[in-house]
Amino acid sequence: MATMKRSQWQEDGNIHLIDVEPAPLPEGWARLAVRACGICGSDLHRLKGHAFGPPVIQRTTPGHELVGNVIAGSGSLPDVIYAVEPRIACGTCEFCLEGRKTLCRAGRLVGTAVLEGGLAEFIDVPEKQLYPMDASLSDLEGSLAEPFSICVRALNMADLRRDTHVLVLGAGSLGLITGLLARDTAERVAVSVRYPHQADAAKALGLETVAEADVATFAKDFDADVVIETVGGTANTMEQAVVAARPGGRIVVLGLFSHQPPLDVGMLVRKELEIRGSAFQGMSDHGSEFRAATQLLPRYRTELKTLQTHQYPLSDIAGAFACAVSKDAHAIKVTVLPG
């Protein structure tokens, strides 16, 4: 196979394209031509040095929100577009055998120092990580399968009911997807917003909005049974969550924090709140949460364009990241396409 183009973090903290020779394909793995790959908030945290140690993991390729078509593998896979479940568990440890693969200590993630990611022309992944996408979905739409699966897990952990009031902290892509999915189960869903374009997107998805600075006042009447934190980074949203949750309520944390966030432990105790962390995608009582996400996507096709605000060719990977971190671009989800 000829050389391929792959994005790579550089020593100067920027990202560039390089040409590489593809490695031999391991048994049981497939090589995909990447059709679309989203830039995740965790990629931006790495870029800005907010989490995961150094600002970036040098000489690695990011990207774990991807779809592609198989160009090499066992030969038994149908010729369709596949979404890639990026967290690869060992399958043999106690947690995996219990169906709790998110806790697998040997788990690996596509797009880190362990495995090259999807911001490239091609990617190699185990065939067991591939999920066929509904033919009605475009490549762009299909690339939301992974963030949808993250939100599916968070809502499974939140244990929503028809009379539940849900407050989502943060209106980035994960916050808006969480609100969108919760909207169809819970009685009332509100999302905290920082910028006007986030408020516009939330309203387009049929969600109540509250300004970030007004969460505490809003929460007094909202009476949130569940608060879902999606911001992380350097935000004070854990403090907000404890204030906003009703007594006996639940807090589910999706955000990745770069520091120890402030937390009123006294209020946490007095309210008898439950805090749960939610990592990756795993298994529910109904099976794979990643598979559930791929099956949910067609239901929300008309609303996905509200989330996917910007697209860039792989040839302008630096521009894609610049857009994703810019406050002036009003980006929610930036997606990289071939070209």
Span between N and C termini? 19 Å
Structure class: alpha/beta
Estimate the mean pLDDT confidence.
92
Total DSSP E strands: 19
Q: What is the CATH architecture term of the largest domain? A: Alpha-Beta Complex
Strand content: 25-35%
CATH topology name of the largest domain, in short, is: Quinone Oxidoreductase, Chain A, domain 1
* Alpha carbon gyration radius: 20 Å
H/I helix tally? 12
**Biggest sheet, open or closed, and with what strands and sense?**
7 strands, mixed
Shape: globular
CATH superfamily of the largest domain: Medium-chain alcohol dehydrogenases, catalytic domain
Helix content: 25-40%
Q: Could you characterize what this model shows?
A:
The protein is α/β, with parallel strands linked by helices. It folds into 2 domains: 4-144 and 308-337, Quinone Oxidoreductase, Chain A, domain 1; 148-277, Rossmann fold (3-Layer(aba) Sandwich). It contains 12 helices and 19 strands. It has helices at 41-47, 94-97, 139-142, 145-158, 173-183, 196-204, 215-222, 237-244, 265-271, 289-296, 301-307, 317-325; strands at 4-9, 15-20, 29-38, 65-72, 81-84, 87-88, 108-109, 122-126, 130-132, 165-169, 188-193, 208-211, 224-229, 245-253, 274-277, 283-284, 287-288, 310-313, 334-337. Strands 3, 4, 5, 8, 9, 18 and 19 form a 7-stranded mixed beta sheet that branches. A 6-stranded parallel beta sheet has the order 12-11-10-13-14-15, sandwiched between helices. Helix 8 (237-244) links the parallel strand 13 and strand 14. Helix 4 (145-158) packs across helix 10. The protein is globular. It starts with a strand and ends with a strand.
